[in-house]
Amino acid sequence: MRALLWIVRIILFVLLLGFAVKNSDPVSLHFFFDALWQAPLVIVILAFFAAGAALGALSLLGTIFQLRRDLSRARRDLAAEKARQATSSQKTQPPAGEAVAQ
Fold first, then answer.
1. Residue 35 in contact with residue 16, Cβ under 8 Å?
2. pTM, full prediction
3. What's the mean pLDDT in 40-44?
4. Which of 56, 62, 91, 102 is least enclosed by beta carbons within 10 angstroms?
5. Which residues does 26 contact at the CB level (< 8 Å), separation at least 6?
6. What pLDDT is stored for residue 92 in this prediction?
7. Is the dihedral of CA 18, 21, 25, 31 positive or negative?
8. What is the rounded end-to-end Cα distance, in angstroms, of the chain?
């Protein structure tokens, strides 16, 4: 299984390397206020991919923090419920030295 995984990784690396070599021509990106960025096409694609991945991760932060808050609240409620059940079960059990009348 590990060998198959390494074969897939090597094939993917070769394909991406070939893509990078074939797309090394310089491109110009024109921004607002006559700003200009010139770089090889593969670098531009990589930069925009990385920026998109970072924005996607940032967009999930709110959801992650909300889920962590909900999980801590649920754990706190579970601990309180277990403590309540432990105290109620101690009250209903007869003392250890007394016999239960039948």
1. no
2. 0.55
3. 88
4. 102
5. 38, 39, 40, 41
6. 67
7. positive
8. 66
